[in-house]
Each structure stands twice: as C-alpha cells, then as structure tokens.
Write a structure and sequence with these properties.
This protein is an alpha/beta fold. It has seven helices and four strands. It has helices spanning about 1-5, 10-20, 35-45, 75-80, 80-90, 100-115, 150, and strands at about 65-70, 90-95, 120-125, 160.
Length: about 160
C-alpha cells in the first residue's frame, strides 16, 4: 500500500489494486505494457493480465478468458472490443446466470458459438457475499455495483475479470 501512496494512485486505481495487495499478490501498473510484461515474466511463473473491458491483448496469452454479461445479451457481437475478445477467447464465462433471464443466457451462448466454436463456455453465478453477515441480518440492504452493468451500460466484456 506504501507504493500506492508513493506513486499517488487515484482512488479508482487503489480500488482496483487493494484487494490483490491485501492478499499478498504483486501488482504491476503503468502505461508501458511491454516493460510491465518483461518485468512480470522475470518474477512470476503465472501472470494474470486483467485488460479490463476496454482492451484487446497486445500479446497472445496462453489462456484467454472473457466474461460475458447476459444482462446485455447481444453486445458480445456488436460492441468493440468485446466482440474481438469473444472471437479470440479460449474460455468464455457467462456470468450472472443466477440473475439473468434464461433466454438471455442462451442467446449469449448461441452468439458466442456463432463466432467462436472452439471456446469453452462456462456459466457462473454472481453471488453477493459479505464478511460479517451478522451486521446486516434482518436489515434492508442496497448493493451498489461499480461494474459495467450499472455504470457504463454500453460495455460488455472484461478479459480475465
């Protein structure tokens, strides 16, 4: 966390990094992706590169994982760069299947298959958990998500997220 302070990370950057730092993971950040990748390759056996929902990888990963959101079924084919990532993916995780309409989940799966018949498709629930549930038991709770479903309605896919 000292590095975040020393490098004057924004609140948004700290929000992205803190969970990994607190778990003891090393986080690399910067604008020179090539240099970051070189340093990470020297120090790690496995690199998890999270390109966010606005990136196409600039290198060929050993395993390309893409998250698809059935709450915006159809966007996996019509929005850039998500549509490119779906075509490149080795694995597509259709997330939020516990809250999405079944027909939207099925549409996303059909759409992925129409452009990438080799990808492994997995379905995942998006379960909300809290560290101390006893603090909210019996209370009305509002969950505010900062993800694309609520804040940037046009974006769909996040690599490795």
């Amino acid at each position: 966390m000292e590095d975040c302070i020393e490098n004057e990370c924004t609140i948004e950057e700290r929000e992205e990094y803190e969970q990994y730092i607190c778990c003891g993971s090393v986080v690399y950040s910067g604008v020179d992706y090539g240099k970051i990748l070189e340093q990470a390759e020297e120090e790690a056996d496995i690199i998890l590169w999270d390109g966010g929902n606005n990136d196409v990888p600039f290198y060929k990963p050993d395993l390309h994982i893409v998250i698809a959101d059935p709450h915006r079924a159809g966007h996996e084919l019509t929005y850039y760069p998500g549509n490119v990532n779906v075509r490149l993916a080795d694995v597509v995780v259709v997330n939020k299947v516990d809250s999405a309409r079944k027909e939207d989940v099925e549409l996303v799966i059909r759409n992925v298959r129409s452009v990438n018949d080799k990808a492994i498709i997995l379905k995942a629930n998006s379960v909300i958990t809290v560290e101390r549930p006893e603090l909210i038991k019996g209370k009305r709770v509002l969950v505010v998500e900062d993800g694309p479903t609520l804040t940037t309605a046009g974006w769909l896919l996040a690599q490795g997220s």
